[in-house]
Amino acid sequence: MSLPPLSPEQLVKPRHFELRMSLIFATLFVSLGTHLPYFPLWLEAKGFHAEQIAIILAAPMFLRVVTTPLLTALADRAKDRADVYVALVAATMVLSAGYFLKPTYAMVLAVSLALTVVWTPHSPIADSLALSGVRRFGSNYTAMRKWGSISYLCANAAGGFILYWTSVQAVPVIIFVSLAAALVAGLLAPRLGRPRRASPLSATDIQHSAPSLLNPYFLYFTLGVGIITASHAFLYGFVSIYWKSIGISGSVIGLLWAWGVVAEVCMFLFFNRIFASVSVVKVMLIAGIGSIVRWIAFPLIWPLGLGVIGFFGVQTLHSVSVAMVLIGLQKMIGETVSEERTGAAQGIAYFFNGFFMAAVTLASGPLYERYGVDGFLAMIPIAFIGLALIGLAARSAPQHPVRR
């Protein structure tokens, strides 16, 4: 579908658009790069057992699958999506201070639930702003988004060393300070106004001319992405605890997480050179296969005596099982979803990611409690289901992309 021309205001590119969006992504991912690997260690240090940790991690995911699509759709209707982003970052920073309170199970769960409502929409709204720049000004998405991965990498590595020299009690402090930095960057976010409206056709014309977000291709693809992503739940929830249990130090744990992100950044840097001519469906099939190989390999590393070097090797697959999923999803949305629907599309994708991640995270607690590292084997059939859905998406792929 051809979209109407941009208005004179929408044609004006904000100064240093790419630089400002890169700063948004960089500061956005510092707090995430601390929370994901080290928050479970903080919970364990506070005396919570594996099933409680799984509930604290999973319950917010179930909540955010409802709230995130609502907030991202609200951002699409706001005067400027950047204003919504700033308000959400400010609220997140304030709520994160709740972790400084006495860490009872009820308190930590309540803070985590409140926090997820305002924290989770950061990334899809930032992605939506970046994709508007891609559509309007020809900006390079991966060139901007890679700084999020780089900052995530730095947070992984630096967080490990900070915890090594202090203790896991520093985790809430690092999260609070990094959110403050994200707020400062958010105030500098480029203002783009409202998203470009769809072509002023009748409702019947739109139904026939514009691809709906509920078409089979979009639904199968986003479902497949969500399930492949969910196969990482066991890794995110319990791999730091597992590594610590076999005697790996906090600083090395940080480096292991960081190495995975190094591989992710490399994929962002070289994706266009390697996969520019590869269809987005094939990209996702490669990502799903990479996930399966990763979950097969993980439980074998320590028993086979491959040690820490083996874990570094398997973490390299982060470039395939995570980075290619992230890029593939944005590529699919950029090719098939009109600009005014990108926020809603991001929200639907996050709904599926969040719901399936929550379900698998909740199951990961009992899995780790009973099977330890062998719980990774349960992630293999999950990734296979995601692959099957991507295969179904391939059968209903649109013939022509949405034109700018």
UniProtKB/TrEMBL annotation:
Domain of life of the source: Bacteria
Coiled-coil intervals: none
Xref: Gene3D superfamilies: MFS general substrate transporter like domains
SUPFAM superfamilies: MFS general substrate transporter
Pfam families to which the protein is assigned, alphabetical: MFS_1_like
Residues annotated as domain Major facilitator superfamily associated: 20-371
InterPro entries reported for this sequence: HcaT-like (IPR026032), MFS_assoc_dom (IPR024989), MFS_trans_sf (IPR036259)
Principal cellular location given in the protein's record: membrane
Assigned keywords, A-Z: Cell inner membrane, Cell membrane, Membrane, Transmembrane, Transmembrane helix, Transport
Bilayer-spanning residue ranges: 21-41, 53-75, 82-101, 107-126, 147-165, 171-189, 217-242, 248-271, 283-302, 308-329, 350-369, 375-394
Record's subcellular location: Cell inner membrane
Membrane topology: Multi-pass membrane protein
NCBIfam families xrefs: mfs
Protein name: MFS transporter
